[in-house]
Write a structure and sequence with these properties.
InterPro entries: Clx_II_MBL, Glyoxalase_II_hydrolase, HAGH_C, Hydroxyacylglutathione_Hdrlase, Metallo-B-lactamas, RibonucZ/Hydroxyglut_hydro. Its cofactor is Zn(2+). Pathway: Secondary metabolite metabolism; methylglyoxal degradation; (R)-lactate from methylglyoxal: step 2/2. This is Hydroxyacylglutathione hydrolase. There is one protein chain. The protein is 33% helix and 24% strand. With 260 residues, the protein is of the alpha/beta class. The protein has a single domain, classed as 4-Layer Sandwich (Metallo-beta-lactamase, Chain A). Strand 8 and strand 9 form a beta hairpin. The structure holds zinc ion (ZN). Zinc ion is lined by residues 51, 53, 105, 131. The site of zinc ion has 4 residues, from loops.
């Protein structure tokens, strides 16, 4: 059986810890100490990396020093032993893993989808999307263009709605406050704000989310909704520019969120 749990790191990062049949992998270890603490005496069997930012990679060297385990991720990152690129398929923890490129937040950003087969032939997909898709939000555009990021998010949004989404930061409540500003009439956003605040009040993670939940409440996946497009257009410079295309709506939303 596969279990996936968050290891909190820094102020709001999650290092996802995957365990199956006594094997352990972690995703995006920005620091090593919380991973050492979570593993105890168990060895680490491997590391997955989504992109080059230090809060996702800073723990690689120390973890490799202790465990000498493989590191799968973008080939340009120091410490990666097994470079991955778009379309690759491999196996970790005895389960198939596939790789999608999702440039935008950074140009090297990968999304990793782990597939677990259920007993009756149904499969559950687990998406590790780093800083590309967040609960009710998306990553900042540090390296890519709005068109690249929008295309990356659109790819992720075609995964089955029940796909579990493991984002790398606990940004959900702040993101939902922006989502509500972008689409005030959306009742699903209001409900999600109440649920997320209740979880955070108990110091529990709001993640994983699902693709279905994101499609219903994440403004960056809702650029095709006329009400969202109107709010984005009205907010921007002089409020006068009509954005009929979804990339234009996305770009306006992302700029608005940068200053929110
Ligand atoms: Zn990042």
């Amino acid at each position: 059986m596969l279990t996936i749990s968050p290891i909190p790191a820094f102020s709001d990062n999650y290092i996802w810890h995957l365990e199956r049949d006594g094997q352990h992998w972690v995703v995006d270890p920005g620091e090593a100490k919380p991973v050492f603490d979570a593993l105890g005496d168990a060895p680490l069997d491997g590391i997955l990396i989504t992109h080059h930012h230090l809060d996702h990679t800073g723990g690689i060297a120390k973890l490799r020093e202790r465990y000498d385990c493989p590191v799968y991720g973008p080939g340009s990152i120091d410490g990666v032993t097994d470079p991955l690129s778009s379309g690759d398929r491999c196996e970790i923890l005895g389960l198939p893993l596939r790789v999608m490129d999702v440039p935008g937040h950074t140009l090297d950003h990968l999304a990793l989808v782990l597939e677990e087969s259920g007993e009756n032939g149904a499969s559950q997909q687990h998406l590790f999307c780093g800083d590309t898709l967040f609960a009710a939000g998306c990553g900042r555009l540090f390296e890519g263009t709005p068109a690249q990021m929008y295309s990356s998010l659109s790819k992720l949004s075609t995964l089955p709605p029940e796909t579990l989404v493991y984002c790398a930061h606990e940004y959900t409540v702040a993101n939902l406050q922006f989502a509500e500003a972008a689409e005030p009439g959306n009742a699903a956003i209001k409900n999600r704000i109440a649920e997320s605040k209740a979880l955070r009040a108990k110091n529990l993670p709001t993640l994983p989310s699902t693709i279905g939940e994101e499609l219903a409440t994440n403004p960056f996946l809702r650029c095709h909704i006329p009400a969202v497009a109107r709010r984005a257009a009205n907010h921007g410079a002089n409020g006068a520019i009509e954005d009929s295309d979804e990339v234009g709506v996305f770009a306006r939303l992302r700029r608005w969120k940068d200053d929110f």
